[in-house]
Amino acid sequence: MMMILIVKLFGAVFGFFGVIFGAFGAHRLKRILPPEVLHSFETGVKYQLIHAVVLLFLGFHFDFIDFTERMIASCMIIGVLLFSFSIYGLCYAKAKRLNLKFLGPITPVGGLLLMSGWGLLIYYIIVG
């Protein structure tokens, strides 16, 4: 099924870029960003990597025929894109002295989607 491939692919891509972004933060950004901004960047990387593993797990264990299974994965994929990548954009803006403040409100929306994905997973486990 296409959804299985999409979820596995997002998991692998998030993992791949999570390692790259983590190394970039540890080696390059460490020299140009203040510690609190670097900490935010590291939070984005951490959430991205955690959800990469979760998406791979879901991709190998769900068939995605069930609506709830599709919603769990969708919330997590979109949540990572909004949460982690808005943080990366804000950190990049700080490093380059750009005004990308419009990204600020996007981060909590991504966080809400991540929480929704986890909440749906809890529901799925209980009601199943």
Automatic annotation (TrEMBL):
The record's annotation in Pfam families points to:
DUF423
Q: What is this protein called?
A: DUF423 domain-containing protein
Q: In the record, what lineage is assigned to the organism producing the protein?
A: Bacteria, Pseudomonadati, Bacteroidota, Flavobacteriia, Flavobacteriales
Q: Which InterPro entries match?
A: DUF423 (IPR006696)
Q: Record keywords: Transcription included?
A: no
Q: What keywords tag this UniProt record?
A: Membrane, Transmembrane, Transmembrane helix
Annotated localization: Membrane
Recorded topology in the membrane: Multi-pass membrane protein
Membrane spanning segments where? Answer: 6-26, 47-65, 71-90, 102-126
Q: Which family does it belong to?
A: Belongs to the UPF0382 family.
